[in-house]
Amino acid sequence: MNLAWIIFVLIAIGQVKTDPVTENDREVVNITNIDILIQSLESQKWNSDETPCFNTMMKTLTHAKNFTLWAVWILDSIQLPIGQLYGAGVHIGNYDECLFPDKRMDVNEDMPQFKYCVNNLTLTEKLDEESYSRDPDVTADLYLNKRTKFRRSLTKALWGLCVPSACEPHSVSKIARAFLQISHLSPMDDTTRIEVAYCKTGKPEEYSLGFYIFVLSVTAFSILTISFSYYYSTGRSSSDTFVGELARSFCLTRNMKELTKLRDDEIYSMNLMRIISSFLIVAGHVIIVNSLHSTVNLLDSEEMAYKTSDFMIHLDLTTDSFFTISGLLFMRGMFTDKWKSPLKYMWKRYIRLMIALGFVTAYLALAFQYGIDGPLYDTIPREEIEACQTNWWHSILMIHNVVDARNMCNLVSWYVPCDFQLSIVAAILFCIYQKNKSLGITFLSATFTVGTVLSGLANYWYKFRPNPMDGFETYPRHSKEFTDNFIKPYTHASPFLIGAVIGYIIYTYKPKDYRKRISKFWSYVAVAIALLVMRLCLYGGYYYFFVSTVPSAQSGVYAAFNRAVWSTAICTIIVVCEYGDITILQKSFEWFPLVPISRLSYTAFLLQLPIELYYMGTLRTLVQNDYYQLTILSIGFSIMCYVGSFFVWLLVEAPLININNMLTYKTWKNVREKSVTSSDKQD
């Protein structure tokens, strides 16, 4: 029986088909990223009003699976977050590929329309620095718990995506979340907040009436300058007539000579100081601009900044060099003014400051937006443009550093109203001094004391740091240290007044009559001490940012006196170069090209913001921030600022200054009177 059963089983097995299984018999399923993305999109909660957006996105992904050109094109423009842990806080993708596919392929009516949307991405709202860890085996969220050296959070980013035009902001954030869920950052999906910052369609803005007015005005000035220059060169005009003096005001040759003319009372030592200060300010702003949005290697960039921070972090002191020089020139000018009219002199100074400021303000408010486009344009550049369009009149009145300062036009122009306000104070002190010298000195001392004390008290009372640097996450416009303290006139009163005192000394003891009164030994000693003091002042910024981070009475005392000490060191170098015997510096300062470049520094200072905004607003990719890149950008921006300043001087600034002097002092009549007097003497 058992044998029969065994035989039966063997026969049955022999009847079973044993053909091998081939690849065609097995169902092969290929899961792609697009399939996962489709699942992520479907898992979002979509409302009925979001159906057009959802359907368009699903259509795009379906066509992308079939490798249809237009759909692959759109997905190819999208970049998942990369380098977030290394500080790359902006993920742009390909802006032009998203918005302008018609430039490289034929677009038909069946192809959906897309727009470029930038999202604010916050991976976690709460930072727990106590649980921060660099252990490679811990979860990555622990590494993100601590801010960087310059107080940047690695959990925040801007993320640009190409999405259907039919999508509203709440739908865009769902698409962004779906993409986040297929990225390496998906474990933080539950804690991540996504908000749409802005969207761009790529359609150019229509030119406004203000744009045409600005362009026509610049064109008119250019035509007038060329026409009057030619008319004046023919020799048919005379300076003793209104038309002749008007032609002379626009004359390119005359204005070029005015820019390069060496005056008898030229203070050569200030020229190089202005240029160096201007370059250092531009370099500092380049670091800030790159670190805010456009640096692919923020952590390396911060390490570089940290190594030089004992020198660079308190570079705002270089603005006090400008205040010192401005106070010196203002007070010397008041004493040498041949008209002896403080009101006329103040009006002349207002015009001198206002023309360049007004030109840059008008450019930012009326024309700048039409020449710039890019994925980051709607961040800081758009904010600056809107501030100028709203508060341009604050600039005209010279009050934008004290009235609605957070919305001032041209952020770097805070210097101009602050300088003018301090000029008013100095003019009042000048008038008092002219009436009663002892009373004038008393008021000067009191004003200096009040400015110094207020600066220290404000820092101590409101818990401000002595320098306005607030790290690489906060734009200065949104920093209380900057808008509520640093740009106020009392903060810079002491440098301006110290410069004013030196201006009076130079007026009284004219350098050409007192050359080399200080011996060579003491000249070198004084300059060495001044440089050492300046170095210590710069180190204070590092100390109170990295070492003593909590504002205290000590930091308040430093804030009260550091700018006055810096100004004193600057004045020491000026005095030694004018009255001492230090040939190396004197020869360097007297190099002729420094004279015109120095005179262009004011307008160049104002032009740096539009140039930096254009750089940021047109960026298509992040940059590597290192010493080489910083040097190239700083030199390039500085050259562009001075070249722009040169053209503004020839076409706008110099002609309007000349016209103001012509109308204020009736210069053509004075020429006629001098001519008559000369004829009488000859007779």
Radius of gyration: 33 Å
Low-confidence stretches: 3-23, 675-683
What is the overall number of helices? 27
Q: What's the arrangement of strands in the largest beta sheet?
A: 1-3-2-4
Strand tally: 4
Indicate the structural class. Answer: mainly alpha
Q: What percent of the residues sit in helical stretches (DSSP H or I)?
A: 55-70%
Q: Number of folding domains?
A: 2
Portion of residues in beta strands equals under 5%
Main beta-sheet strand count, sense and barrel state: 4 strands, mixed
The termini sit apart by 161 Å
Question: Shape, please?
Answer: globular
Short description:
The chain is mainly alpha-helical and 683 residues long. The chain is 62% helix and 4% strand. It has 27 helices and 4 strands.
